[in-house]
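[agent] plan:
  1. take the single chain provided in the ticket
  2. run structure prediction with default settings
  3. attach structure tokens to the ticket
  4. add a short note for the reviewer (M.T.)
[agent] executing step 1
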Amino acid sequence: MEARERKSDAEKKAYREKVLNLDSEYSKVFIVKADNVGSDQFHQIRRYLRGKAVVLMGKNTEIRSALDIAIKSNSQLRQLKEEVAENVGLVFIDYDLLKIRELLLADRVEGRAE
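[agent] step 2 finished; step 3 output follows
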């Protein structure tokens, strides 16, 4: 069995650029906790938000490294960087925050009991 391939520097750079582009393109960001969220549910959420917001999930270290670059021009992002931990995602928005929040909460499913 082959070991998982590591992301190349080019892939990491492209991901950082994506985060930086989203940060400059959108004026607001939601932080969402993504525990117990399946791929089908993410698909539904992304479909609901199409044209209103962009959901970004990924490696926290890569998101933080992109935010380090963005902090140089916008120091308010320091707070956002501190919140990027565990299983969270970022939702970049140029729309009414309350309406986006309602869309996200409408698709909320309780975690299964153990």
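[agent] step 4 note for reviewer: The mean pLDDT is 83.
[agent] ticket updated
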